[in-house]
Amino acid sequence: MITCVIRYEIDPFAKEEFTTYARNWGEAIPRCGADLVGYFAPHEGSSTTAYGIYHLESLAEYEAYRARLAEDALGRENYQFAAREKFIIREDRLFLKCVSTPHATRAVR
After folding, report:
1. What is the pTM for the complete model shown?
2. Which of 14, 15, 34, 35 is the most exposed place for a label (fewest CB within 10 A)?
3. Which three-class secondary structure state does DSSP give residue 5?
4. Would you tell me the crossing angle of helices 73-85 and 15-31 to the nearest 10 degrees?
5. How many whole angstroms from its chain centre is CA 91?
6. For residue 106, pLDDT beyond 90
7. Beta strand extents in the chain (DSSP E only)
């Protein structure tokens, strides 16, 4: 399993647009085959850093997923929305593998 972490630098005056973008991915990403953890927008601290996080089985599955996403009507529309509105200043992808498993049971306090 790999985790894709997308770090966004967004326009601090366009948080609503980013929220719309994130909600659209909330529908399209799972439909196209990735396990979406979520999209996270600025709340406290930085007003320009946001993240999208999802899991896939492998880099090969990532490539197939990206092809499905490019063919998805909402996926295409969302790419066009971001390009048109220009609320994303920068976008970086990082692929990680969890190495801390198995995890202990969470303690209740």
Report:
1. 0.89
2. 35
3. strand
4. 160
5. 10
6. no
7. 2-10, 35-40, 49-56, 88-96
Q: Say how far apart CA 87 and CA 104 lie, in whole Å.
A: 40
8 Å CB contact between 30 and 36: yes
- Amino acid identity of 45? G
User: In this prediction, what percent of the chain has a pLDDT beyond 70?
Assistant: 100
Q: What is the rounded CA–CA span in Å between residue 85 and residue 105?
A: 44
Q: What is the pLDDT of residue 28?
A: 97
Report how far residue 33's alpha carbon sits from residue 24's, in angstroms, rounded to the nearest whole number. 15
Among candidate residues 39, 68, 52, the one with its CA nearest the CA of residue 3: 52
